[in-house]
Amino acid sequence: MKGHLNTPESKDRISYIHGSDGSSSSSQQNPKSTAKWAASLENLLEDPEGVKRFREFLKKEFSEENVLFWLACEDFKKTQDKKQMQEKAKEIYMTFLSSKASSQVNVEGQSRLNEKILEEPHPLMFQKLQDQIFNLMKYDSYSRFLKSDLFLKHKRTEEEEEDPPDAQTAAKRASRIYNT
């Protein structure tokens, strides 16, 4: 199927946004990113490194299609060109919503979506379904992610990099020197 999300060209489009392995284009990480990720699912999804880690977790849970659908809808909403919008709408439908979808998401109202709506796409046509998936991730997968070894190991690594055990602040060194 041309334009399908599992084709090499569509993977390139996803790769362009998230890196070929789902990683961000910059490997620089904000200090304490795990603290931001833990604050809200919104913060996690705004951080390419957070998306990468969340996808890793969802792969293990066999529910990566949820975040992929959410990301595809976000990308779709930014599309201006009518022809591109039609292609992306069909791609989202065939990949995530059709009964024959390769990465079908489980949303209510899915059966009401048929291919006729793809002829006249608009930026918010998938919004209700995207909101359902967001809430599913927020109240289900996201809380488990925050308790997962994957997240906790990343958090520990981040804390160790920020505050190595043998690091001393100038104030501590000075107080030892002058208080002896």
Largest beta-sheet characterization: none
Task: Quote the distance from N terminus to C terminus.
Answer: 76 Å
DSSP strand count: 0
Backbone CA Rg:
21 Å
Assembly of the depicted chains: single chain
Structural classification: mainly alpha
Runs with pLDDT <50, length 5+? 1-30
Q: Tell me roughly what share of residues is in helical segments.
A: 55-70%
Q: How do the helices and strands follow one another from N- to C-terminus?
A: HHHHHHHHH
Question: What do you see in this structure?
Answer:
With 180 residues, the protein is mostly helical. 62% of the residues lie in helices and 0% in strands. It contains 9 helices and no strands. It has helices at 8-18, 33-39, 41-46, 48-60, 64-77, 82-97, 127-147, 149-162, 170-178. Helix 4 runs antiparallel to helix 5, helix 5 (64-77) runs antiparallel to helix 6 and helix 5 (64-77) crosses helix 7. The protein is elongated and about 55 Å long. 25% of the residues are buried. Mean pLDDT is 79; it is low at 1-30.
